Amino acid sequence: MKHDIKDKKLADMGARRIEWAGRDMPVLANIAKDFAKTKPLKGVKVAACLHVTSETANLMKTLKAGGADVMLCASNPLSTQDDVAASLVVNDGIPVFAIKGEDHDTYYSHIRAVLEAKPQITMDDGADLVSMLHSDLKSLLPHVIGGTEETTTGVIRLKAMAQKKILAYPIVAVNDSETKHLFDNRYGTGQSTLDGIMRATNRLFAGSTVVVCGYGWCGRGIARRASGMGAKVVVTEIDPIKGLEAAMDGYAVMPIKEAAKVGDFFITVTGDINVIAKESFKVMKDGAIVCNSGHFNAEIDIPALEKLSSKKTVLRDFVEEYVMKDGRRIMLLGEGRLINLASAEGHPAQVMDMSFANQALGAEYIIKHAKKLPKDVITIPREVDREIASRKLTALGISIDTLTPEQEKYLASWEMGT
User: Fold this and answer.
1) What is the distance between the alpha carbons of residues 177 and 138, in angstroms, rounded to a whole number?
2) Is the dihedral of CA 106, 71, 76, 53 positive or negative?
């Protein structure tokens, strides 16, 4: 079995980590039991480009239980947990191509490795698999019947491809499911981003000014948790509705050129490029800490930061100090990559339980309906979304009401008024 990981000897530790995460993923565990009985993915090759974490490992095991032939590579050079990668190879017989800290060329060689196995389903986190398939490996496209996409950034890229009629097969936008973005993006990113910053810096949030660039679901989660820890939160936005919402939620809202002057911590979560750029670096405080929790490090204009600096020093793991020519110091965390995965462990298993339930059921949905689906970005049917939520409530021991026949009739009628 081909693979490329750091060290097989890490497998035992990885297995314990995977088991620990699995305890908090009851929805995915239930799906795995169902898959083991029905084998909806029997004989299907699945190429997954995801963060190689303990939670992802439980998804891979679920897909394998459903009969899939799974291959996994990393969706970010710094997000791999090497012991988890080792366990999947040694204990589960799943080919993994991922090493924490891999360079640019290795990263793309790993993506190529899983694609050259001629998958029928792609499972993406940022659309790098799809991008390579549609550019360098077009000859493999006839083998693919569909795919899934986990992130906001990836969905943006895929929708652009679909608009230009370039997308060659249907892709389920897992990120657009309510049981994904309302929970994973808000609660998962909110908690894990601050966790990553604290692990990297050991700095105090209370009394500090935290600038959150972007007020989507990820930005909302980060702002809320930073505020809860005593920080003064500033939000920057380009959408007037989101800007207004942030103001109504109690945060200061201003352009980045103004926020750059007052921030102690800067966190980008927009999915766009150069959100923090040259003009911002020129006015930041001495000691400002800059990081990203969006999918790609392009949100921070790192080349501009390097040009403005006279010296760069690694002060701690995942902390690079750039000394500006005027003597100010700016700290870049995790090379500008996803800080929650670079220096921490990513989202808690409780929220990934729902996200990966969407991935698993999304793959099953593709197998059942691929021939009828358009070559476009599609959303999992709402009834599947609601089923995931219902399973999660059951696992948490929470009950909710159901409509009475009278209530159902009222909601479906137009005759009954006041």
Assistant:
1) 29
2) negative
Phi, psi of 202, rounded to the nearest 5 degrees: 55, 35
Mean pLDDT of the chain: 96
Same structural domain, 174 and 228: no
Instruction: Summarize the annotated binding site for NAD(+) as residue ranges.
Output: 151-153, 185, 214-221, 237, 293-295, 340, 347
Nearest to 292 by CA among 272, 321, 322: 272
Please state, as a whole number, how many other Cβ atoms lie within 10 Å of the Cβ of residue 279: 12
Q: State the CATH number of the domain containing residue 316.
A: 3.40.50.720
| 215 has a pLDDT exceeding 90 | yes
Q: Residue 44: inside a domain, yes or no? A: yes
Q: Give the residue numbers of the binding site.
A: 53, 125, 150-153, 180, 184-185, 214-221, 237, 293-295, 340, 347
Give me the sign of the Cα torsion angle 35, 381, 355, 337.
positive
Residue ranges at the known binding site for substrate: 53, 125, 150, 180, 184
Average pLDDT over residues 285-300: 96
The total number of structural domains that make up the chain: 2
Angle, CA of 299, 348 and 120, to the nearest 5°? 70
Asked if residue 19 and residue 166 are part of one domain, the reply reads yes
pLDDT of 51 reads 96
Structure token pair of residue 120: 């029928």
Phi and psi torsions of 217, nearest 5°: -65, -35
Kindly indicate the confidence band of residue 408, based on its pLDDT and cuts at 50, 70 and 90. Answer: very high
Give burial (CB, 10 Å; 0-12/13-18/19+) of 163.
exposed
Whether pLDDT at 418 is above 70: no
Indicate the residue type of 245. Answer: E
- Phi and psi, residue 77, nearest 5°: -65, -20
Q: Is 375 exposed, middle or buried (0-12, 13-18, 19+ CB in 10 A)?
A: middle
Provide the token pair at 78: 């710094």
pTM beyond cutoff 0.90? yes
Rg of the chain (C-alpha set): 22
Write the DSSP assignment of 77-128 as a string of letters: TT---HHHHHHHHHHH---EE--TT--HHHHHHHHHHHHTT--SEEEESSSH
Q: What is the mean pLDDT of residues 278-304?
A: 97
SS3 label, residue 291: strand
Region 346-364: what's the mean pLDDT?
Answer: 96
Range of 243's domain?
188-342
pLDDT, tens digit, for every residue of 116-137? 999 999 999 999 999 999 999 9
